[in-house]
Every structure is written in structure tokens, then in C-alpha cells.
Amino acid sequence: MSALAPRHWRWWLLGAVLLLVAVAAVLLLRAPAPGGTGGAPLPVVAAAPVQVVEWRSRLRATGTLQAVQGVEVTTDTPGIVSAIHFDSGDRVEAGARLVALEAEAASAQVQSIEAQLSQARADLGRSRRLLRRGAVAEAEAEQAATAVRRLEAELRAQQARLSDTRILAPFAGELGLRRVDLGQFLAAGQAVTTLQQIAPIHLDFSLPEGNLPLLSVGLPVEVTVQAWPDRVFEGRLAAISPAVEAATRSLRLQAILPNDARLLRPGMFAAATVLLTDRRRVVALPVSAVTYNPYGDAVFVVQPPAAADQPDPAGSEPPGWLAQAGAALRGLFAGGEEAPPEREEQPEGEEAAVRRSFVALGERRGGLVEVLRGVGAEDRVVTAGQIKISDGQRVRIAAEAAVDQPPAEAAVSRASR
Known about the structure:
coiled coil; MdtA-like_BSH; Beta-barrel_RND_2; rod-shaped; RND_pump_MFP; disordered C terminus
């Protein structure tokens, strides 16, 4: 038995040595290679400072665009169309000839009355000469004068009827679609086209009566329409109704816009913003900094990295002998040739930590949104890369152009604008 005991302990000792070698091999293989990064790269985000800006107070409303002048061009006398002097959509000046009706009968009637009037005036002159000689009674001379006045009145009426056969533009503007054809019979009052004066153009809208102390004629007005969503049309408040509508308790207002390009048309639905005289200072940040969630809107505030999170310089690299042994083992298991260490390029930029902060948002203008609470004027917030980070995480701040924003996040940012 005593001869077998040493052999038994030799097997136990050999097993222990093999176990220690296996544990050491695992540890050495997991040790970072010399010159390695020693960890995953930090997510890269873009950041921007919170801004304190001065915004002009404003009132918002919706309304309808109206022509300064707009009518249906009609005929006052019945007749057959003999000539058309316009095309649909033409711009015309005041007094421009649009349509002519057949006027032979009216013209002949005018000539007949003119001949009768000429004869009556001659008779009146003769009667007056005879009256001075006492050859005729005064009543006969008065009857001749009455006949002249009657024929003059008939001539003016017939000339007016003749003038009604020419349909003219009552003011300068743009014509609508043509509604007549050559040879068509027009009844009295029948429309031939529309005429609109749209440069300048009016916008009619309403505001609650409580805003009356803030309003005055001449205030700037900004207008947007669905047809030109990226354009802002500027005008001014032209009129305030003297009465409040009892049914709605609102004030009727009218703005006037130049509309030189004639992009705005009567009947368009428009959104109006009245710019008031007072200004206020607000804390604002880029719209892209806000992440919208069902449980509340939030931003990531950039903070200096905590001291506890700073890497330990002494422990950040393994001892030299351990690194060399790990490299040798890696080369051995890789077939005797050590693979070169792969280093991931870390972009240049400032290291920081981020903190999620829930915010209350206010008015939004352009690319900025007002923050009522949740951040301070001296803070910096993450504006791109939010989908890659979480509360309390360390990040690397880089220029916004260097951030590889995922498509999903880009879509969220576009939808928030």
C-alpha cells in the first residue's frame, strides 16, 4: 500500500497542474493584445447649446382670401353677341372692351332721334324769331322748346342703350373663364365672365374679442397657404370691424397683402399670424433634440463624465508579461502566426456623459421649440444620435455631420419638424 501512495498523489498533482494551466490559458486568451483599445467604442452624438432668444408675441388665426374687387361681368340689355374681345384669364385695364352685341337697330334709332332733334331745334329758333315780331303766340314757342327737351332726353336714353351693347371692364384686373360664344343670345343680367382684382389681395379672418386691446391697424401679418407651404406672405392689418359678432364673440379683421406675383387667389384657405409689438425672451432648443414618447417628451443633457467613470490609468493596460503571454498563446492557437490586433478608429471629439431630462414644450418656430421647464439656459443637449444612447451613458461629442444617424431616427426627426 505504501508503494501505491506516491503514485496516487502524483496523479492528483498532475490533474491540479492541468487545471491551473487551463484556467491560465483562458485568462490569457481574454487579455487584450498590446496596443488594443480595451473596450467597445463610445457612441458618437452631436450636441448643441440651449439658446436664449427673443421672440415677438403673435396671434394665430385662419381665414379666407378675398379679392379687393370682384364682380361678375353682365349685360344690361338683351342682344346677340357679335364680337368677343378677350380670352379666358386675360389681364385687362379699366374700360377695356370685352363683348359687343349687335347694335344696328339701336344705332338707327339714335340717328332717327338726332334727325328729329335737329328739326325740332330749327322749329324752336323760328318760333322764337316770330315771337319777337309778335307773329305767334308765346304758348307755341313754349311747345317748340318742350319738344326739343323731350327729344334730347330720348337721344340720351337711346345712346345709353347703344352703349350697353358694348360690355366694358369696370376696373383693372384678371378675367375668369369665358361664358359666351359668338352668335349667342344674351338675356339682360346674364354673366359673360368674372373679373377679379387680386393685386393687392385681402385676407378676412377672426380673433376672439379678448384680443382687441392688442390689435391696431398697421400691425404686420404673415400668411401661409397650402398651395405654397414653404412660403410666407407678408402684409399688414388693414381694418378692424367696429362690432363684435354676437354669435361667436369674435372680431372680424381684414389684412391686405401685395401679391405682386399673383400666387394668392380669392377663396384660398389661409393661416394668418399677427405680429404684436411686445417681445419676450424664451429658452429654446433645436427641434431635433426632442425625443417624443408616450410617457413624455425628453432630451439628453450633456454633462461632464463623472470621476468614478474615468478609466484607471494603472489598470487600463495589462502587465507586460501578461500581454506578451496572451499574445503568444493567441499566436499558438492561431497556427503559430500572431494576427495583427484590430483597432477601431475612435472619432475625434469630447467625451461626456448624458442625462435624460423630461421637458415641457411651448411654442415652436422654424427649427426651434420653446422649453418651459426641464433644461437651463446654460445646458447642452444631444441633437443627433439619441437612438444609440441611454440615460447616464458615456458618449463622444462630435460635429453633427460626423454622426451616422440611423434611418429610423432620421425619419422621427423629419416628422417632428
